[in-house]
Amino acid sequence: MRILVQKFGGTSVADLTCMRQVQAKVEKALADGYKVVCVLSAMAGETNRLLTLAREWSSRPDPSEQDVLIATGEQVSVALFTMLLRDAGWKARSVLGFQMPMHTDNDYGKARIMNIDSDRLKQMLDEHEVLVAAGFQGCDECQRITTLGRGGSDTSAVALAAALEAERCEIYTDVEGVYTTDPNLCSRARKLDRVAYDEMLEMASMGAKVLQIRSVEFAKKYNVPVLVRSTFSDASGTLVTKEDPSMEEVKVSGIAYDKDQARVTLREVPDRPGVAAAIFGPLADAGILVDMIIQNVSREGRTDMTFTVSRSDLERALEILQSVAKEIEANDLIHDLGVCKVSVIGVGMRNHSGVAGTAFRALTAENINIMMISTSEIKISCVIEEKYLELAVRTLHDAFELDKQSAED
Ligand code: ADP
Ligand code: ASP
Ligand code: MG
Fold it and tell me: What ligand 1 atom has the least distance to the C-alpha of 177?
């Protein structure tokens, strides 16, 4: 059985006209001889609408009930789309997370997939030409509904492709593939033909929401070829795949940005062993991810500790840090929401020097102050003021001449 997984995002299923385009893509795959597992997101804007509702009803929505609520968006999409397919004469059925079943842990709102019953799905595929699967949702040990975090339908799709040993996973969206940077922010962004898993992992981790991070982790782990392409054109898209030597030739392949950043500073904390653990231990215990950390030079036995967290975690982080500040006798706790992170990414950085220098010089030339820096062997990230975000992305894109096809591409 040749299986293809095709995932369609929110803008691709936004209304009947869009769903007709989706139908055409599915029918093309069927004509090519595939059994199709079609994974759908909620209609554009629906998950946000449901989250707003939850916050109107409750000051602290119960996480598991919130998952029951927001998982309904995908249920609507799969039911409506299956009706279209059945009207057109195809043997199709909808499949919700618990019917697959897609088992996850019980970390509501950002659950992790534990396993998928591929036998049951294969049996359903024997009896149908198309399975229309709800993305984003699963169920835990207690049969409670879970969701996989924002953008989680990408992960549902790649996980299903891995479980069913599909030929590939196609991710259909509103742009024609993975670009050198967000094409909606920078008109000079250039579409890439291929991207290495590690590079895509960094791009996604640094904020490029075209693929959810966990979907790329799955793809890499199970070696699933992922093709990102547009629902609304026939362009060839971008293949996310294993690294090969030619990819190393390109120093920088993309610029990513992340607005979901808040900067927190604990002022004048005592500079002694155990202080970092006293600050970051309770944050980690609360499941709050701390990104960049800077500890300043000590003055008279005291130092400032500055770090970034995601904006959605800020309120909880500040609550925890109020009591930590008292305990370690810090002098002040301040935060700043007007920051963002821009990152330069490329697997070729491993073998080339000078990338950081070029990036810093380019930002300096535009008078953009760099507040924090972090590096890995394939990326350089800078925290800057949010008002400079677009300028910084375009400036870095120009500095590395990413609009030009390099000879190795
Ligand atoms: P979907 O609803 O189909 O899942 P998303 O909105 O989650 O779509 O992801 C697609 C969006 O990702 C694009 O519209 C684009 O603005 C954004 N994006 C950010 N960085 C990139 C990039 N490097 N390449 C392509 N798209 C990007
Ligand atoms: N509907 C969910 C969201 O908006 C999942 C997805 O679209 O991938 O985050
Ligand atoms: Mg998405």
Answer: 25
